[in-house]
Amino acid sequence: MSRRSIIVLAAAVVMLYFSIILFMLSPLHGAKSAYYGNSYMNHFGFRQVPSVNWCKELKWRSPPSPNVVALVSYPGSGNTWLRYLLQQATGIVTGSIYMDYGLRVHGFPAENVTDGSVLVVKTHEAPPLEPDKFKSAILLIRNPRDAILFAMVFVHMFNNLLSFTHLIHSSS
């Protein structure tokens, strides 16, 4: 790989990371939004989800349960949707082993919380690094065709990024 290719690839990666960071932080600084059809757009042009109206006021388990329950699924299987339904039904926050700032500011305040103070803990990992952490699990299974399609969309998006980088290099 030539030096020029490495520089072009590095520039593409930096732009991608900057875009992701901008997208994650845009709801945090109180960007004004305008309503277009069925979604909100902030001044960066990114879609924003309207604030969530909860059926019950969200609360943490008190005292925390000694039994931490894992909510395990393949990515794209509806894990976040099930967490939303559980929070609506119980009023108790659900956690995650991940830190998704977009979810955190839009109704999931327990992102990156993995103890017994939450109802369940979202994970796509298997098996856990700490095998004794979870005392039980809920396994969420989606139609494999749909889950595989979801995974292939992500692979396709990644390949398109690589093709775009190659196109830039070959045209110069």
Report on the structure:
By secondary structure, this protein is α/β, with parallel strands linked by helices. Helices cover 40% and strands 15% of the residues. The chain has four helices and seven strands, in the order H-E-E-E-E-H-E-H-E-E-H. It has a four-stranded parallel beta sheet, covered by helices on one side. It has a three-stranded antiparallel beta sheet with strand order 1-2-3, with no helix packed on it. Residues 27-40 have low confidence and may be disordered. The chain crosses the membrane at residues 6-25. InterPro entries: Sialate-O-sulfotransferase. Keywords: Membrane, Transmembrane, Transmembrane helix.
Which features would summarize this protein structure in a list?
15% strand; 3 domains; alpha/beta; four-stranded parallel beta sheet; three-stranded antiparallel beta sheet; 172 residues
